[in-house]
């Protein structure tokens, strides 16, 4: 009923969500609120006070890039031209042949400072939810669309399908539900919608592709057989297929090969087993699953008359400008 998407940082987005809760929502019926803070996202430009909590006395080119980016956005009256700032200030340092471990450490500190900012703002939102008397009958889910890589597998950013990109937070609070339960089974973000509907006693639409994972169970019964797929298509295509204790990665870029991992022994995906008998069998299981997964997706699409949503040329001029700033359209 209301859509308000502006890249103005977590404090602004929390303010907007609280205004809606306090003034604009219909108080005589249930509500659904999706609060997207746009944090943590490049370019990392947290407050200097937060940076001081995580950074050392480093005084190299990455700090100067950060300070120049802050000064640029201040002159631009607070607007954050995300793609331009990243390319103009941070990317030259990140792509420098002289990049040092100290430079990388400060870049990671900027990320950690933005995480602290997001944590503080989500806390402010939850405090006000309680102050309004809504916490006792509102389900809260905290999650993310992707993680960030900091050279664990050769790159920085979110262009690949390794664990550090796909393993995101999933924190659920259910009024009257279990407390302190830690789940270690695989789920997919598409599982959220049917699981929430099931928790609320509402019907799950037949077009849903996710599974009801059961928030209240200590470990879902489906977990051992549940495989999740991750895809990346820039800078080159990659596919990841993960199950309870194994992962397969199929990259298509230059100089890379298929990879297989025993997650029980190697959760950080460091020891590629592809050349071993165990790894070959793992890759074959993943390939067979991916074939059926694609066929099932095609059958589901055809059965329900589903179609993709074009990005280029879609939406208003302001929406297109926002997509351009995030780097989702145009030349990259």
List keywords for this structure.
8 strands; 332 residues; alpha+beta; globular; 4-stranded antiparallel beta sheet; two-stranded antiparallel ribbon; single chain; 10% strand; 40% helix
Structural class of the helices, strands and pairings?
A: alpha+beta
**What is the N-to-C order of secondary-structure elements (H for helix, E for strand)?**
HHHHHEEEHEHEEEEHH
Number of strands: 8
Largest β sheet strand count, sense and barrel closure: 4 strands, antiparallel
User: Between the first and last Cα atoms, what is the distance in angstroms?
Assistant: 33 Å
| Tally of individual helices | 9
- Pick out the low-confidence regions: none
Strand content: 5-15%
Average pLDDT, rounded to a whole number, is 89
Helix content: 25-40%
Gyration radius, in Å:
22 Å
**How does the overall form come out from the CA principal axes?**
globular
Q: Give the strand order, joined by hyphens, for the main sheet.
A: 5-6-7-8
Can you walk me through this structure?
The protein is α+β, with helices and mostly antiparallel strands and 332 residues long. Helices cover 40% and strands 10% of the residues. The protein has helices at 9-24, 48-54, 61-75, 82-94, 101-131, 163-166, 192-199, 277-304, 317-326; strands at residues 140-143, 149-150, 156-157, 170-173, 228-232, 238-242, 246-251, 259-262. The strands form 3 sheets. Strands 5-6-7-8 form a 4-stranded antiparallel β-sheet, covered by helices on one side. A hairpin with a 3-residue loop joins strand 6 and strand 7 (246-251). Helix 1 (9-24) runs parallel beside helix 5 (101-131), helix 2 crosses helix 5 (101-131) and helix 3 runs antiparallel to helix 4 (82-94). The longest helix has 31 residues, at 101-131. The model has no long low-confidence stretch (mean pLDDT 89).
């Amino acid at each position: 009923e209301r859509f308000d998407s502006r890249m103005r940082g977590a404090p602004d987005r929390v303010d907007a969500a609280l205004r809606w809760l306090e003034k604009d929502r219909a108080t005589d019926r249930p509500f659904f609120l999706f609060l997207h803070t746009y944090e943590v996202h490049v370019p990392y430009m947290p407050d200097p006070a937060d940076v001081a909590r995580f950074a050392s006395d480093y005084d190299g080119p990455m700090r100067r890039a950060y300070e120049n980016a802050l000064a640029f956005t201040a002159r631009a009256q607070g607007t954050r031209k995300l793609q331009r700032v990243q390319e103009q200030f941070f990317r030259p340092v990140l792509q420098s042949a002289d990049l040092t471990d100290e430079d990388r450490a400060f870049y990671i500190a900027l990320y950690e400072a933005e995480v602290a900012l997001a944590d503080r703002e989500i806390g402010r939102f939850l405090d006000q939810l309680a102050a309004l008397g809504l916490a006792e009958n509102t389900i809260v889910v905290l999650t993310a669309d992707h993680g960030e890589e900091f050279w664990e597998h050769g790159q920085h950013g979110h262009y690949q399908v390794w664990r550090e990109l796909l393993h995101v937070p999933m924190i659920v609070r259910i009024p009257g539900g279990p407390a302190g339960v830690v789940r270690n089974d695989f789920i997919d973000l598409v599982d959220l919608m049917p699981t929430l509907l099931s928790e609320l006693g509402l019907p799950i639409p037949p077009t849903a592709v996710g599974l009801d994972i059961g928030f209240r169970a200590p470990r879902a019964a489906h977990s051992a057989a549940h495989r999740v797929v991750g895809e990346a298509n820039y800078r080159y295509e990659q596919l990841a297929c993960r199950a309870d204790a194994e992962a397969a990665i199929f990259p298509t870029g230059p100089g890379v090969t298929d990879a297989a991992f025993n997650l029980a022994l190697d959760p950080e995906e460091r020891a590629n087993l592809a050349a071993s008998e165990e790894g070959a069998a793992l890759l074959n299981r993943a390939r067979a699953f991916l074939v059926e997964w694609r066929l099932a997706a095609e059958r589901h699409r055809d059965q329900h008359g589903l179609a993709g949503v074009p990005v280029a040329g879609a939406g208003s001029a302001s929406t297109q400008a926002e997509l351009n700033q995030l780097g989702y359209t145009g030349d990259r």
